[in-house]
Fold this sequence. Notes:
Layout: E1 10-15, H1 20-24, H2 26-34, E2 38-45, H3 54-57, H4 62-77, E3 81-87, H5 115-129, E4 133-137, H6 141-144, H7 146-162, E5 166-171, H8 174-189, E6 214-217, H9 222-231, H10 244-250, H11 253-260, E7 262-267, H12 282-285
Parallel strand pairs: 1-2, 1-4, 2-3, 4-5
Antiparallel strand pairs: 5-7, 6-7
Amino acid sequence: MTEGRIPPYTVVSFHAHPDDEAMLTAGTLAAMASAGHRVVLVVATAGEAGLVSSDVAGRGPVGVRRMAELEQAAAVLGCARTVLLGYADSGLTAPTRADARSTESGLSPFAHADVDGAARRLATILVEEDADLLTVYDPVGGYGHPDHIQVHRVGCRAADLAGTPLVLAATVDRSRLRLAARLVALLGRVGILGAGLQIPDFSGAYTARAALTHRVDVRAHLAAKRAAMAAHASQASSDWGTRSLAFYLRLRAPLFRLAFGFEWYVERGRAPSRQLAGDPFDSLRSGVVTRRTGEQG
Ligand SMILES: [Zn+2]
């Protein structure tokens, strides 16, 4: 047991699909890696249910392509290791338990996987890496994708099993997102931006401002974040209109900075306050959070 861990720290960033790491956490991960911390990316699925254009689909298996894109993004961000847990991508309309099919590896769609079983697989990596910090998603899975909700459940359980001291749920400040959505809708209506772009209603999505604990300024790492997003080219491809990733990548630098210059987190067990922490490791550095003994031994 070490009181007040000494940096550099080891971070495991857990995601559902390749490209989620770029949208939600890329700036934070790039900042950590460039400061000398060890950053490990773990994805539950290869994202093979992700939509792609017919042109991209014709060039081979989507999961293989998306894992190659993830490796490219990981390299740009300075990640030391990338791990695929190997669950099937549940897709946006998750199969019911009854028709949940097994994959070649014998593993089920991630959204319907046994939480303890999946958590034990992730905990093995957390123990192996002696991770100080695990990032997951908020309990609503951001915009509600069943695999994202499962990332929260599995991640929190894995941290308990492994004794990982610090858990941060990656999220977005909902009020900011709704403001941006209204702006994009307005610009779309007057024909300036976003033709064919679907703008969801974010009323129950992500996290209310009052529940946040961290706002990380990643403006110094936006080149890496943009490059990580661009690495997921298949997810910008479309036969049916503008996809959000393609739209974001077309934003000019000042707008991109406005949209992606900050990343938000909710630290598990930490009371929210009006003054948001800017350092993801804050609770480790101050000794508020210390190493625990995992249930897994
Ligand atoms: Zn996803």
